[in-house]
């Protein structure tokens, strides 16, 4: 195929039919940019587009390929003798086009299957590691996987429907081939990111009936203040409301200068928490377990108990 001759023929036939590039593009379900590239000889139509182009411009496929209109015969006998040859050529070209489209469709499905298989293997490995490590954030990954599978299923259904309705539509195929790996990659990045930088476990607080006392101090070596019975429940409420972050705790004490230490005692155990302000944010830290986002109200309440 000669790009310039084919492009000139498409342009001439489009103008002859009184169509704009936009109108022809909409009829063929492609972008006007593609039409412009064809007509300027910068690219050739995809093989799957030859039949719809020929149908829309009322010419034969062979004429689109050659880039010229077949010469009109001067006599009826010549026209009759030439017609079967032209029709036979078009039938042969259509058969090649259909086979090409089918093979491309199979190739697209193969890419989807391979992507899904790789995705499933990685997800299985990640979830296995999380289960073995008893990480309770596994529900997040399960939710992301479910969303990914739903999106892949929706894309596949759209592709199959459009394939049946319009076998020459290339847009849905391209979208599917792009969408499936992109969706899978985004979900995998989120899962791996959450695996490498997991949020801390939720704060464990003894049952109120098990707590014997709660003390608050201003740090190492400072005097302790025992919280009154009425304050214990409020303190436990602030602790339980703290939100896990991805920040780690690497020491027995926080890496800040000023903090309040909260110690909760039961008859058989003790639990230690630190609350402090860092910039404008308030955090609760549990040594070696994690750091949690708290509120100004919480630290103000703890400070009022300690200073009373």
Describe, in plain words, how this protein is organized in 3D.
By secondary structure, this protein is of the alpha+beta class. The protein has three domains: 68 residues, lambda repressor-like DNA-binding domains (434 Repressor (Amino-terminal Domain)); 98 residues, no CATH class; 100 residues, Immunoglobulin-like, CATH 2.60.40.4250. The chain is 58% helix and 12% strand. The protein contains ten helices and seven strands. A seven-stranded antiparallel β-sheet has the order 2-1-4-5-6-7-3, covered by helices on one side. A hairpin with a 3-residue loop joins strand 6 and strand 7. Helix 7 runs antiparallel to helix 8 and helix 9 runs antiparallel to helix 10. The longest helix is centred in the middle third of the chain and has 57 residues. The chain is rod-shaped, with a radius of gyration of 35 Å. The protein starts with a helix and ends with a helix. About 5% of the residues have low confidence.
